[in-house]
Amino acid sequence: MNADLQIQESLAHSNLEVRTSDFDIRPSHFSSSRLAQLTFGNGKRVDFPIVFAPMAGLSHVAFRQVVRSYLPAGISALLFTEMLSTRLLPGEDVGHTPQTQVAPGEEDLIPQLLGNDERLIAKSLEKLQAIRPAGIDINMGCPVSKVLKHNWGVALMGDIRYAEQVVRQTRQLTPLPLSVKMRTGLTDDPEYLVDFAQMLQEAGADWITLHPRIQANHRKGSANWSYIARVRDALRIPVVGNGDIQERDDVLRMQAATGCDGVMVARASTARPWIFWQVGESLDLSPPLGREGERAPQTPNEEGREYCRALNQFCEELEQRFLPDQQLPRLRLFLAWGHKWLFFGHYLSTRVNRCPDLSAARKVIDDFFAEAKTMQPRTSLQ
Ligand SMILES: Cc1cc2nc3c(=O)[nH]c(=O)nc-3n(C[C@H](O)[C@H](O)[C@H](O)COP(=O)(O)O)c2cc1C
Fold it and tell me: How far is the CA of 294 from the centre of ligand 1 (A)?
């Protein structure tokens, strides 16, 4: 039995059986990873193993700027946009819509396409040139019914030949590194999952992200990390693991336990965007720009203080980059996820939901943090 299979077995019952202390995670672990061997559209190689996830309504320029402020200085990372409809992109002023606007210097962006029609994908890719993407991703993971009925998102995983055609066509349309973000699929069938992932590789995907949950589970239950190890073992291309990362040690454990080439963080980044800094610290990388000489927040008190700071930065970015009526909905969504790790966070989120505009919400935030607050490392995630 090879090492990856042993890991699958040890992980089969719980994601939590592997302790970080069991593994030696060093920068060399990532620099030899397959993802670090790819060259992206900006001519750069990625030298940081955490990928910021696509999240509808969240992975916009304001939040990405917050995440960027926590990236170790001098590294090259990958950040996704939220999913972008190939039905809408061709008619949009890309670079100026709330979903596609970018900040100066965002040369590491992976726009994620939602769709399956070659003609629309072609037009979307043309439009996306305006924001100079580093790569392109195809969404094969979105589980919601209004997406499934168009045969987009994870529905594509139900028809391997059709999905193959979508990837082959997209491959022909762009020279940029092409990736697919996928789930376990519509059913829990690891052999089909491996066949599907191998099909993506043969059809021209340069790398994939696997969120190992089936469609029906949306984000419920636990992500089955053993499938990440299994798929990684079966492919030549890089495999980024995704699912249930909450704190620094989860990133290190997932990488050590599955051999994945990178780790994608979604929900926890709304609570703890400094997880990028924390992992950087574990890899002996520099602190973020402007935070020289500081350690990443770690204790519940330090994290509580940092959350206040990050939330204020998020509000400032919203004010600077979005129209007034676009600001509050984005703050509400950010808090709807992030508050779960914050003590009394539910109170804050509820109060902000009642505010008429961002400036009222900022007053609520100031009052809330007038007394020091703490954060917990983990939450039920449900
Ligand atoms: C609010 C929200 C929106 C999401 N939108 C997208 C999306 O647009 N595209 C996508 O591929 N996944 C999307 N996801 C899924 C995440 O990228 C990720 O796969 C999932 O949340 C599991 O990772 P996590 O445990 O780190 O949260 C979304 C998740 C959330 C919570």
Answer: 31
Residue 134 and residue 42 in contact, taking contact as beta carbons nearer than 8 Å: yes
Residues of the chain with pLDDT under 70: 1-29
Closest CA to 310 of 274, 275, 276: 274
DSSP 181-215: EEEEESS--HHHHHHHHHHHHHHT-SEEEEEEEEG
Angle between helical axes of 118-128 and 160-173 (0-180°, round to 10) = 40
Nearest CA to ligand 1 atom 28: 55
CB 157 within 8 A of CB 147: no
Give yes or no for a contact between 350 and 338, defined as CB atoms under 8 angstroms apart.
no
The C-alpha atoms of residue 340 and residue 346 are separated, in whole angstroms, by 7
Q: Is the CB of 53 under 6 A from ligand 1?
A: yes
Pocket test for ligand 1, best of 139, 267, 269, 339 (most atoms within 8 A of CB): 267
C-alpha dihedral sign at 58, 60, 66, 71: positive
Residues whose CB falls within 8 Å of the CB of residue 253, separated by 6 or more in sequence, listed in order = 15, 18, 19, 20, 23
Judge whether 315 counts as a catalytic residue.
Answer: no
CB atoms within 10 A of CB 119: 11
Query: What does the angle CA 82 – CA 87 – CA 91 come to, to the nearest 5 degrees?
Result: 95
- 1, exposed or middle or buried, with CB in 10 Å at 0-12, 13-18, 19+? exposed
Q: Is 267 in the pocket of ligand 1 (CB under 6 A)?
A: yes
**What are the tokens at 278?**
């924390």
Closest by CA position to 262, among listed 19, 38, 13: 38
CA of 86 to the centre of ligand 1 (A): 18
Given this model, what pLDDT does residue 9 score? Answer: 40
Residue 42: per-residue pLDDT: 87
Q: What is the pLDDT of residues 190-244, one digit of tens each?
A: 999 999 999 999 999 999 999 999 999 999 999 999 999 999 999 999 999 999 9
Encoded tokens for 198: 């191998």
Backbone phi, psi, residue 61, to 5°: -60, -35
Whether the CB-CB separation of 208 and 178 falls below 8 Å is answered with: no
Helix axis angle, 61-68 to 300-321, nearest 10°? 140
pLDDT, position 382: 74
Output the pTM of the full model: 0.94
Q: Is 62 in the pocket of ligand 1 (CB under 6 A)?
A: no
